[in-house]
Design goal:
There is one protein chain. The protein contains six helices and six strands. The protein has about 200 residues and is α+β, with helices and mostly antiparallel strands. It is globular, with a radius of gyration of 17 Å. It starts with a strand and ends with a helix. The relative contact order is 0.22.
Length: about 200
């Protein structure tokens, strides 16, 4: 059982069946579960430090960004969020977008962690899916009904997908980014610039 002091559930994705073929890795179900438990434990440590005034909010966001990069396949996540526009982006733009989007996510969802009372997250099952594992968990938070959290861990031992109570959070971000790009008439550089300061 992993104890939570905030809801550490933000990323999401599109179906893993759409991912390109990947080389085989020797990832085990225990490693997939360990990845999720490790990520939650690190987030708990950060939140505790903020609660005890040992860490500033800006430092917290930097730590969340580090965790996202450590445990998530951020290039793949960013490419999915950018969608078909990623094909017309240059290598430099894709890298810049990945960095800007990672910071955007850390700030956007980092602010939400303060709103939730502590609880626990329990792994209920783990099973193979194409190119990885699906880790099904149950979240129990004070004042809330239990809800399901499903993590999708790739064979690279990085998470790519997360569903919270049936909501695909990466797909939600894909819609958000698509709307932002439309508002900028498809200007990827303008999107990157605005993401760097957006929250």
């Amino acid at each position: 059982m992993t104890h939570l002091t905030r809801r550490a559930f933000f990323a999401g994705s599109v179906a893993l069946s759409t991912l390109p073929a990947m080389p085989a890795f020797a990832l085990t179900d225990k490693q997939a579960v360990g990845l999720i438990n490790g990520m939650v434990a690190e987030i708990n440590t950060i939140i505790e430090a903020v609660q005890k005034n040992r860490k500033s909010e800006s430092a917290m966001f930097q730590d969340f960004e580090r965790i996202f990069k450590k445990y998530g396949d951020t290039p793949r996540i960013a490419a999915t969020v950018l969608g078909t526009d990623a094909r017309r982006a240059s290598n430099a733009q894709r890298k810049a977008f990945t960095d800007a989007f990672t910071g955007f996510i850390a700030r956007k969802y980092g602010k939400q962690f303060r709103k939730f009372i502590g609880g626990d997250l329990q792994v209920k099952s783990v099973g193979p899916i194409p190119r990885g594992f699906q880790v099904k968990c149950q979240a129990d938070l004070q004042g809330s009904k239990p809800f399901d959290v499903v993590f999708f861990v790739l064979e690279t031992n990085r998470f790519y997908n997360m569903h919270v109570d049936g909501v695909d959070l990466l797909q939600s971000e894909k819609t958000t980014i698509g709307s932002m790009l439309d508002a900028r008439r498809g200007d990827i550089d303008a999107l990157i610039s605005d993401l760097r300061s957006a929250s």
